[in-house]
Amino acid sequence: MTITSEKKASESESNLDDVLPVSPELVAEIIHALEIEDKNQIIFLLEPLHSADVADVFEQLNGYHRKALTSFIGSDMEPEVLSELDDRALDHVITEMDDEDVARAITQMESDDAVHVLEDMDAEDQRKIIDALSDEDRIVVEEGLSFPEDSAGRLLQRTLVSVPGRWTVGAVIDYFRTDEDLPDEFHLVFIVDPMHHPIGTAALNKIVRSDSDRLISDIMDEDPTIVPVDMDQEEVAYLFRQYDLTSMGVVDDSGRLIGVITVDDVVDVIEEEAEEDLMRMAGVHETDITESILEASKNRVIWLIVNLATAILASMVIAAFDATIEQMVALAVLMPIVASMGGNAGTQTMTVTVRAIATRDLTSSNVKRIVFKEFSIALVNGVIIAIIIGGLSWVWFDSMPLGGVMATAMIINMVMAGLAGILIPIALDKMDIDPALASSIFVTTITDVVGFFSFLWLASVVLL
Amino acid sequence: MTITSEKKASESESNLDDVLPVSPELVAEIIHALEIEDKNQIIFLLEPLHSADVADVFEQLNGYHRKALTSFIGSDMEPEVLSELDDRALDHVITEMDDEDVARAITQMESDDAVHVLEDMDAEDQRKIIDALSDEDRIVVEEGLSFPEDSAGRLLQRTLVSVPGRWTVGAVIDYFRTDEDLPDEFHLVFIVDPMHHPIGTAALNKIVRSDSDRLISDIMDEDPTIVPVDMDQEEVAYLFRQYDLTSMGVVDDSGRLIGVITVDDVVDVIEEEAEEDLMRMAGVHETDITESILEASKNRVIWLIVNLATAILASMVIAAFDATIEQMVALAVLMPIVASMGGNAGTQTMTVTVRAIATRDLTSSNVKRIVFKEFSIALVNGVIIAIIIGGLSWVWFDSMPLGGVMATAMIINMVMAGLAGILIPIALDKMDIDPALASSIFVTTITDVVGFFSFLWLASVVLL
Question: Please, what are the domains in chain A?
Answer without folding.
Answer: 18-149 (1.25.60.10), 162-263 (3.10.580.10), 292-462 (1.10.357.20)
